[in-house]
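Contributing new records

If you add data, match the layout below exactly. Sequence lines come first and carry their own label; structure lines follow with theirs. Keep one chain per record. Anything else will be rejected by the validation script.
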Amino acid sequence: SPGAEESWDALFNDDGDCLDPRLLQELSGGEERRESLQEPRFNYYGAEPAAPDLSDDELPHVIEIYDFPPDFRTEDLLRVFCSYQKKGFDIKWVDDTHALGIFSSPITARDALSTKHLMVKTRPLSQGTRAAKAKARAYADFLQPAKERPETSAALARRLVIGALGVRSNQTRAQRDAERKKLQEARERKRLENKQREDAWEGRE
């Protein structure tokens, strides 16, 4: 309205400077108050997620293996823990210098923790890095205790013995075909199980 325009003209000159000292003080004070606002004490955007809280009773058969050379491969770690392989031992990688060691039982895992190993260090998973805990928690269903290596099947053992002795088998053709089919099915089942575990570990569907 014309009255409002005239009031603004009385408060400000042509250069936009405020002509009312009281209003100028209020404007300046408001600016100072805005500048004096306290910065937030916590940066919610830059905060890292908290490490998963794992107790000693959760996944007690799994330990963290760390501080080994970055060029180490799976076979190098398996060689370090070769004495545990017969009872059952597996490796799951976290990064180039950290891995999860999966044992057959908590007792075996504690034994590995109490033993000094060449070129690697170990610690309970509950004391592990954030990345190790997160991976263990995310893939807990696939970190079941490592199983003892299965004994050679009777069919395969029989073939090895017969082949070594150079004698003929007294099995019928049907029996041999049945055993051969059973072995093939077992191999295929194991191959699929391994592939499913690898896909789940890598996050593939």
